[in-house]
## 1
Amino acid sequence: MTTTSDTAPAARAVRAGARTGAARADASRTGADLAVLLLRLGDDALVLGQRLCQWITRAPTIEEDLALSNIALDLVGHARTLLTLSGRLDGTGRTEDDLAFTRQDREFTNALLTELPNGDFAATVARQLAYTHYASLYYEALAGCADPDLAGFGARAAKEVAFHRRHADDWTLRLGLGTPESTRRMRAGLERVWPYTAELFDEDDVVRRLAAAGTVPSPAPLRPLWERRVGEVVARAGLTVPAPRWQARGGRVGLHTEEFGPLVAELQSVHRQFPGGTW
Amino acid sequence: MSAGQTTAGAPPAAEDELLAHFEALVASGETVEPRDWMPDGYRRMLLRQIAQHAHSEIIGMQPEGAWLTRAPSLHRKSVLIAKVQDEAGHGLYLYSAAETLGADRADLLDALHRGQQRFAATFNHPALTWADTGAIAWLTDGAAVINQAPLCRTSYGPYARAMRRVCQEEAFHVRQGYDLMRALCEGTPEQRRMAQDAVDRWWLPAVALMFGPPDTEAGGADARTAALGAAVSRRAIAWGIKHHTNDELRQRFVDQCVPQAERLGLTLPDPAIRWNEERGHYDFTPVDWETYRDALGDDTHWARQRVAHRRAAHEDGAWVREAAAAYAAREDAGVPPAGTGAAGIAADRTEAAA
């Protein structure tokens, strides 16, 4: 997955803007902004992949052990590309592993949705439904970026996420229409995760500057389409989209849930036990 | 199913002819296929072996699966996820092969969960450190490949075909395990110590348990175990299920690992290992099968733990499987999905109730 060319977006941006001091400053800010954005996306994929790893050997069927590990593998692949790109752009030269295994909890910028504990299978399906429809739309948007690294990643990842989305859609239908118990659990799963969905589409200065510069589109305008698509699946499953009274936020600025600390501790435990280790 | 039922109804004379035909088929090297007549003993031996193999793949996901969330690099995490995923896939191929013999996957899983069917006792050892994932892949999977390579030519067609796919992937896992160990051996002194410790704990289980009890005189001191093992192996070889004795394969494994361990700079925990010029093989301490009676028992901490983990996953997932079955039945009955509006949902509920 880490097939990115040496001509990273920041380097090109810097070259393009090298004529004047002001242009240079803009270019370097764009590079820094892009590093922040890619780190967010990379953390989303890494943390959700970590959660799905917790399912493996515990799934309801062997087929699901296989499907969930397949999805986790793709997500870790996305994280590797995104973290590598981010590390090149932020001026620190950190590798994918530096970013995954040596940052503090507060330095992770994933959306809170991705770190929610797995809960039962229905809660996991609900989380997958929300994430995969979002990632699918956003990666398709990335595929249209001028930057070839980003566009290439977006196109590849969108194809993979389309399968994950199909998996989530299918299970939403099966559980929604299956038995009274599965219907009840699927409804509860949707209720559980829905307050964490708005954050995926949030705009802040970083996103707005990148969108204004035409570097990366904002996810905010994708929200109505996301709502329509997710709403269609939920309706076909005989359920209704929850209308939460509150929306959780904070992941993008490193304010996480209490359950996040143990997730990071587990992720980093071996790496940190062997300072200077090579793997 | 068909072949087994045919046997029951066949008069003795016809059965003799069938048996002669079956033995000629095996001797010719052609594969036995599900529709062919086969002796009950052959069917039972195969089913037992395939089920045990399938269960071993599924249970074998656990010791490594426990390290998925802790893999120390994203590259290693990807490799390990892919490996555990492959094991789930192998389990599925093998359960499918067992189903061609008239077994049902749900019944086989029940037998595993009730402790009525076994899995490789190697996995009744704990994976205590990250290096264990490397040692398991290098040694346990290495032993599995040696065991399983001849099974690609086993007499039962569906099993042989499943094994060809399994072996390709297993060989890849062994290389990845060796590579993981190499990275540790080239790392810090602490990483090296972790690697040696893992090999100290996984070597004997691989040598002993992955190949089964001694089945030749060369296999060890326990003459009765060896005699029984030899009888079973003779039967399996005559039917073309196996091609080699356990002890031949065990020797092949030792011969393969000793030079690899030397290249890694790791010590295999057996002081008797040395090259025997006369035999053209490495000598090693014969397997003392008695040592493994405990590990082989169903009632050790880890045997309970592995089965309990499986059973918990199965029981926790019961409602999901029921939902999937209910949904599939509904699809088969042609009930349309719920509409996008309230009316559609109401109509749908009515149909579901009817």
Note: Residues 28 and 312 of chain B are 46 Å apart (CA to CA).
## 2
Amino acid sequence: MDWALPPNYSTFGVVIDQLFWIILVITGIAFLLVEGGIVWFCIKYRGREGARAHYTHGSNRLEIIWTVIPAIIIAVLGAYSALVWDDIKGSSNRPADALEFLVVGKQFEWNITYPGVDETLGTADDFTVRNQFHFPVNEDITILLESEDVIHSFFIPELRVKQDAVPGMTIPVWFDATQTGNFEIACAELCGLGHYYMMASVTVHSAADFDAWQASQAPAAAQ
Amino acid sequence: MATIVAEATGQAILHEEHEQSFLRKYIFSTDHKVIAIQFLIYTLFFLMIGGLLAMLMRYQIAWPARGELPLGGIFPESMVASGYILPEFYNALVTMHGSVMVFLAIMPMLVGVWANYLIPLQLGTHDMAFPRLNMLSFWAMVPAGILTLASFFVVGGAAGAGWTLYAPLSARPDLTGVGLGQILWLAALVFIGLSSILGSVNYITTTINMRAPGMTWMRMPLTIWSLFITAILALLAMPVLSAAGIMLIFDQTIGTSFFLPEGGGQPLLWQHLFWFFGHPEVYILILPAMGFTSEILSVGSRKPVFGYKAMVLALVSIAFLGFIVWGHHMFQSGMNPMLGLTFTVSTLFIAVPSAIKTFNWMGTMWRGNLQLHSAMLFAIGFVAMFAIGGLSGVFMASTPVDIYIHDTYFIVAHIHYVLFGGSLFALFGAIYFWYPKMFGRMMNETMGKIHFWLTFVFFNLVFFPMHGVGMVGMMRRIYDSTGYAHLQGIEDTNAIITWAAFGLFASGFLFAFNFFWSLKKGRKAEANPWNATTLEWQTPSPPKHGNWEEIPVVYHGPHEYSHPDVEDKDWLAQNERPDVVSPAAGSH
């Protein structure tokens, strides 16, 4: 197997992956410095008969260096992370005209309510499908995430989306898929005996295909 | 255990000393050394239980469809049916592995064992400030252990909502099938909280009031600093968990709705309360380990701790920051995303004191005269493994990256690098290091070194690949990953991890053998086998009841190794005057 993130198919996923690799490089360098240093010291300063250690209580200059440098790296990383986070999850940055779906988790299934052809939730042409999430590509999607019983977590790895579904709360989550394809919703929060099979299929359609699919579903749901 | 406490001296120091019955001396003892040994035996037992639960869990993860669990027949049908681990038992394994390891093994081993053993000895006093409270703090752990073990055998099995006990899953038996088991574990938690609070009061009071003459704050060994700060954390954090646990019991049994939305409660309230305890808890689980490591590295490098003051300041700042980072466990929980911003900042900044400590440990080794005995190997192993755990923490502190890796095996890898590669490595080091003082005999070095290398190799084979499995996107706590399209192709890695986990568990038995074999057969230890400077080494091994014939007087800091003015040896005990050892030396 390759230890890799799955391919990314969402708009903001690009930045998340970028940040992942940036952190991997920074921590990788720190890793090599620390582990390399430890191994080197173990070999070089290995105890010998009659040897005597260098007597020192430390160095203020070094303390300042290794406090300030990590602090600067961390501050930059923190500021950048905060900006990206706000772009993705900040309530003021949610796309206003997104297509809305209602997603309700319950032991051990995902029920998706579609807005129907009028593209509005809460109207007569809404319909609900169990464990199947269809939506169009290249369009802002907002799901209103709820749970009927315990906490679940809505996770689509390829779209870099994860959000807990909490009973008693409605949590809006948005994303925008950049490619059509078939994926899965996994539950990422332990929710009981069937946690491991709480899975739903995800189909990202072209806009035309989505309309056709929705039209094919609506009459069935209306009966 | 006859070697544990030597016969009482004629010097009446504590009242209980005269003509103690067996019961008072070894069972209901108020001697801090005996209590520490009781904690040690207790926690080693639960370390084994926790490990066993992990082995069963790993078997299921590697071979979810195989069944054929070896010795599966010895389990009741409600756990293992015709060789298959049942999902409900798997959830109990996940939950109780975490719970047992955190609350019954690692935490009491770090604090119950070593705060008890070392605080009076390293500070130069006869015993704890409140010996009877101390005895109670051990005996409160006994019902906790019994309740925990019993919970596996009640109807519905043991708790299955994860060690984090997220409500409503943990609060509603109808949703898990677990009723009594969950309540028993919560009751155990209340006892653990009681034990921890009683212990903490004792450690804090003793450290403040009972230091030997000359033992100023900045002359205390870093072990004591770390245990003292840990006790403050525990005293402030444990009551929150105890209160929350009792609220959860009420939700389950008498119909309150603290955490249940149907009655107007808030599931997120549980998470806030749990993590307000839980994050300081993470530092409770690592600060003492940092203290032991500093101590052992200094002794083993024959050098003073590099940057002692910076080390103390880093401990204090970790403790302070540790109380304002709990929200980083909840980035994806549905709490206001704005809170995520503030918790990111505080979380990233806690990396700074951790980095300071790591560099100072390396500074301690730099130009040393390294004695690579078992204790030292584990201390160096701690630094190497803790560094990985610290660095992987940066990924999840960065909130956008956390969206993806939250609740995956990346987190599992991280926590184990800190809690096993960190805390447990330091604990093994501490046991090898202080065993001669505790029992008057040395542990076998050859077995110790083999134990280290087996542990080191298997540990990394188990937990390093979990970063990869997490990157692929494997969710935590799933009974069977094979049904997911994105998780195809990780079966081999999971099987390798499981085989390595079996090796890791098995190498624990080498340690256990060494531990018990050395009680009888180990080489007799002199008072100061490591040529160490701190006070506990300046009294016989094992110390007599009351520790000292005469309270020592402290003249300087704790880690005076290779002092240029001391000629015929490379160490200067805290109670030795430099001008007496080497008349030419000035006071330091």
Note: Residues 525-588 of chain B form one domain.
## 3
Amino acid sequence: MITLKGVRKDYGGEVTIGPVDLELPKGGLTALVGPNGAGKSTLLTMMGRLLGLDEGTIEIAGYDVVETASKDLAKIVSILRQENHFVTRLTVRQLVAFGRFPYSKGRLTVADEEIISRAIDFLDLTDLEHRYLDQLSGGQRQRAYVAMVLSQDTEYVLLDEPLNNLDMRHSVQMMKHLRRAAEELDRTIVIVLHDINFAGHYADRICAVKDGSVVEYGTPERIMTDEVLTRVFETPVTVVDGPNGPLAVYY
Amino acid sequence: MAEMTASRSRVTEPPAAAPSPARTSRTLSTGRARRRYWTIVTVLSILAVGFAFGLLAWNNPMPVGSDGFWRIAEMRSTNLVVMIVVAICQAVATVSFQTVTNNRIITPSIMGFEALYIAIQTTAVYFLGVAGIIAIQGVSQFLLQIALMVGLSMLLYGWLLSGRYGNLQVMLLIGIVIGGGLASVSTFMQRLLTPSEFDVLAARLFGNIANADASYLPIAVPLCLGATAVLLWSSRRLNIVALGRDASVGLGLNHRRETMRVLFLVSILMAVSTALIGPMTFLGFLVATLAYQFADTHDHRYVFPVAVLTCFVVLSGAYFVMRNIFYANGVVSIIIELVGGLVFLFVILRKGRL
């Protein structure tokens, strides 16, 4: 379970995130949605202890993210940011192997190699595993980073817009991979999404963030309505019945 | 955690085929890459030994192996030790610095080490005249210069990285600005010197092996080896730091502490090298870039040795050429910048990437 209590972050002057109180249960896939600048990524990076809080506490599986040693948290929660500085002359497999750092400190064991192989296979990167990162397309590289986060083998996985740079096919594949990770590997995945329809179809819970606070939180059925979406995104949205569930139309 | 992993492995079926032995994350996993790496290390080692021997033996009037030969060689060996120290300092410091700053095209010199060195030398001559050059030589003065350079950089890092909005880019920018400021003050003072004073000073402002004094070595060698040992030992963590702040924090590394630690060690290495022989702006950058080309891996455990060997080959090669072909004893930075720059351009243009 991820618990946020009175979490606040000031960006100097008018921009303030929070106070946010939120409880995300263990298991399943939670999507954070909302307009630009609402504070979705800020909340996510604070949960992943990449950004300090100004007030409040965040607990993941009972561990306070500020108090707990970073190296212990690395075995409980993993986080992937939107933009990643990529190192040249690094192969996909070597990148994924970094995910084992919290356990092996860089000295990989046979068990580590197996987990790495599984993460690579899981994201269909088997054929690319010895390719260098700079020889990959944006989407492939994105998958490699997700594989690294999965090989970190944490219960909680936080992803900041993993669908960036991905085309239709790869976006769908990525969401299916994450869905499978949540179900088969029993991970709790929190993900920032831009496309409300992806959230509506693949997430178990949707958390709508607006102006630095959580305005709606519930199942996709509850969030995917004209009234809620129009209010959250401040643009007219009509939800229609699509072949695979509700579909938000906003253009 | 262990039982969780076990239950997960039951759910995710392992691939049908048994994992082939090729599935390893080791650096240089293919035979070809390993052969290439060790060939390069061997060639560099042979060159290094060749130049080292050449420096001891070339123009040595006594027959090789005789008593007199070794006596002359011993007198020349101080320069050799100085070059080894400088090669280690520059190579290890630059590679580490580029890693913590996530930037492959800068050198730690821009943090103002050299500007400070130049300012110290110029100030001494400005206030004390030619005698100033003598006044800032000696073991305690050498130590003082190292302490000043390390102190300045720690002040800069500590202030800028531990602050609330501390960030590396701002630190680098302020480092450059301070360096530029010191350089301008030095230039201004140099304008006011008499030609003879300036002449004496100018000799100190090129990287020159002959600037080093054997009495400095008992301090320089342990500092250099100590800092290098710690950095080599941190190689695995440096590999993580290279991924950037967010990724390394996510993997459980205390990124700020790691950065501070590496920058502190870098400042020791750079201070030793600069106080020993003077500014060598281009050398570190040149060898770090070449080392990445040669080693062809991200892994610091493999990059460091190649960088040190490359640095020694470049340095001793330049010294050998200067001494035995141009009879210009010691001033190596000039030839390194000329030839090294051309080699550098050649390698980069041929490979098309940094």
Note: Residues 215 and 245 of chain A are 23 Å apart (CA to CA).
## 4
Amino acid sequence: MAVADVVRLLETNPVYRSRVTCHQVSDPEPARYGTLDKPLPGALDAYLTHSGIRLYSHQCEAINALRSGKNVIITTPTASGKTLAFNIPVFAGLAAVPDARALYLYPTKALSNDQFATLKAMEKFTGIPAKPAIYDGDTPQSKRAAIRENARIVISNPHELHQVLSWHAKWSPFFSHLKFIVIDEAHRYRGVFGSQIALLIRRLLRVAHSYGSDPQFVLSTATLANPEEFAGRLVGRPFILVDTDGSPHGTRHFVLYNPFYDGIGERSAHQETKDLLLSCVKGDLQTLCFTGSRKMAELVTIWTREDARRSSSRLAESISAYRAGYLPEERRTIERQLKNGEIRGVVSTNALELGIDIGSLDAVIIDGYPGTMMSTRQQAGRAGRKGGESLAVLVAQANPLDQYFMHHPDAFFSRSHEHAIIDTENPYIVSGHLLCAAAELPIREEADAGFFGESFAPLLAELAASNLITKTPRGWVYAGRGRAADAVRLDGMAAESFRIMCHGRLLETMDRAQAYREAHKGAIMLHQGETYVVNEMDLETHTVRVTETDVDYYTQPLKEVDLRVIETLEIRDVNRVKCAFGDVEVTEQFTGYKIKKGDTILGVEPLSLPPLTFRTKAFWLILPDPVAAAVSAAGLDLAGGLHGAEHALIALMPLHVMCDRWDIGGLSTPAFGENGEPTIFVYDGYEGGIGLAEKAFGLLPALFLSAYELVRDCPCKKGCPSCIYSPKCGNDNVPLDKEATIKILCELSRVPEKCDSIGSMAGPEPAAP
Amino acid sequence: MQAESRIGALWQQRMDALREYDVVRDGNVFGAGLAGSCVFSSEYDRARALLGELVSRYDGVEFDTLFPGKEILNGGGSCVALESRHTLPATTIDTARLAQEMFCDLTLVHGVGDLSERRLKARGYRTIADLAEHPKFRSAARQVLERLTRADPNDVMDLVGSRHAKSHPFALGTAGSFEPEDYVFLDIETLGLFSRPIILFGVGTIEVGHLVVRQYLLRDICEEAAALTATVEQFSGRSPALVTFNGKAFDLPYVQDRLAYYGLGTISRIPHFDVLHFSRRRWKGQVPSCRLSALESEVLGVARTDDVPGQMVPEFYETYLKTKNCGPLVPIVDHNRQDVVSLALLFFYLLGETCGCR
């Protein structure tokens, strides 16, 4: 097999060998098949036989559970046949009940189209009249009524559903017989977006309930650390988990590759990705390469082709880019060429990660950790043809998370994936959906508590006080002037929005916080690859005026954060450090911005923007006095140490809780509050909080330990972007003290043998306060 | 929880940003054409001034004084009905003439186009009854003949609609088979474009030669269910026929939507004459626009004063809700009453042209 040859090259070539920090090999697994509790309708049996399919154990498990009326979440890997596992019971259900309907929700258009084709083919072969149809923003007006009346499987997306619910009267045949709801790629619905979707699903269930139906759910997701909890929160029902993969696979090689192995990195990681891609393609492996951005996908493609041309122009032609901006025909062509082998190497953004059926390839190269373990597994899962040997390579970038994995391969391979967060209690999210719900059907407090939780009554009063809803004998009725579903955006938080205008044309909208950060006067901002300069920010009319520009510098805002604890909700001791969780009020003030070219500061300009104040949830820790004293006594900078620890904690939050470091904010100070205690705060960057700090509070020991290991094992001397430098630091990474950071994190994570120096100074058993 | 004190204000701000119409500069016909719904700036300024004026003029005036109506009680609760009577010009309908024309329209038969009709007529097939003997069109013609003879208005409308434009005079002509008492003229005023309350229902019926307009006006949103119920009760006649202006796209689905919202059932399918479509066919290109307000001034010679543009009704009503000052309701009620009256007049005008006595 060619895979073995390339693996040998990685092990023997001196350049590659030095950068390979870990090479894990997993043994091949034979297929495991299952049995069905109940025989399938003849037509479905014939379909399976005709397609040469024998059901794997996990498919049977899912089918059995679904056919016995349970809600099921399937988390088996990419290409394990999840789609079939829910399509079969849905078709069986449609065959058994002539009126039954099903709703399939997909996050993207391409996926909807793929599923539509699959369902159409199944319908044609089995003769079961599923009448699948896509109903979304592109569905022509003339076809909509017929789809509402006749389609038994409606394929749609959350944004369309959000608009459709208030038209339920037109959908009454559909809602009256809704039996199945399929949510594919459900892991996409996490964080703020997921919390919005969770409430959208409550609204859907509420409408369905009013038409007398109680649909069953099936969720398909990538692997998560908390699948049942996640499903339960997304939908509000108990779920059966199907996670044991029965599909076969061959020997798998997973290589961790660190261009910065020496702490320097002579060339950019992307250049090294290019070399690896070329080696794979030359070794006759059909290879898929994932990059973090569209631009990088194009660049890596160009570089690889240039190098390949030196050996053969045919080889160069067999390498292509594939990204979201392409026209559908272009994408289809590439997909076809991949399948028939004309294309040997494809460089893509994560558009391909989303389950488009291009079959499997021999090798996958991941240019930079994609942010979640879940995505990494999904991308790597693209490698491995039926039973064949496969190779996946993760090429690390110079950032803390990537470098942490390079130095701790065990953490990488043993990780139980991230916890996906859904918060159905954020008042800003809930209130928006209450407005929409009130526009769909009058809200009755008692009957609807089952959908929106117990705590929504005060929100109703609040909305009523602003004349947005009115209490009537039939329940709370929507009375706002605008359309509720237009005011509530699923992909963000409710906030005042600023319009970014260029020559009278609307470029985009931003919420206030983002506008202050990225579109203040003088800011250089990027929009779809174009550079603009902000000429004016009008706070009265919420308008930002920009013009195109072509400059080689960029701007970086300077921010001061102030924080006030409103209420401490929970306290715990972690390694004898007092940690707390609660409500805080954060005030962020943008004081100015730096004009930078590379790392050089060209100038600093002041800004006069009003402060931004928001309430959110935070966890914080108070460094015990003896530790603080020891840090200072060692001649280290306590403030720099706290600041570094804050950055490291935030950098590694995404390792434990599924989020982006931009979703979280932090504050550290050597003297907080009346008692002047050295404190570090980490807070959710969203008004009202979305459960990130809350989840992390429960995982503090693991978070502390990983942050400590990150900084300790980074080969740099004084801190670098791979450990304690933060790309979003409002204080421009000043002050920072790496040694102090290590001492503080060591104390927090309490690794006994390594903490001697501080342990002895701090005393063996600090007395309880 | 203090955070909540900001939630109402936040959503209020977002709602205010979602205006459902644009104000365009006077004479900017291009802009007016592009924006789905717009108000010219002079119209907008006039209406805003009017709103201010009304609030000060009617300060402290009681609802009952301003709108002496009848309290109505039904299954949906209570609401107020305002009643007014209007005279109508006499229209005599000659249904026979139109029926005659229809029986001679061979293109109503499936498979017969304009060209074949000419050929068939030349060969002596002058009526559908003649065609019923044609070797090829026999069975299709017999079906049409049977449907025309049965003369069920819904069915004849379907037949006409399947062979001609839905606004064909034959479709309007089916209205001629109703008694004047069967017509129900409907026009609603709402808080926006769909999924928001209807705040005023204007229903016109013919009673002994006069047009009687009943307006169910919400003193508060909580009266919507009662007003809906009262409106639906107007459709309980022997064979009601609905007449609206743009009601196929707006008023009827809106009312159905609100009935479903409150779980009050639906209006079953009844013949529906949407005067907008017949007007477009009749006057398109001859009048500046086919909005009801334009037609009533061009065709009926009605001039409105102190009118509120339809798109601005929500903000007038909201002002009433917020301040409890009834002034802003005055032009809404007048506007709606005039809409129902103009609708009825236009309908009879068109009906007279289509199948009146010549």
Note: Residues 756-769 of chain A have pLDDT under 50 and may be disordered.
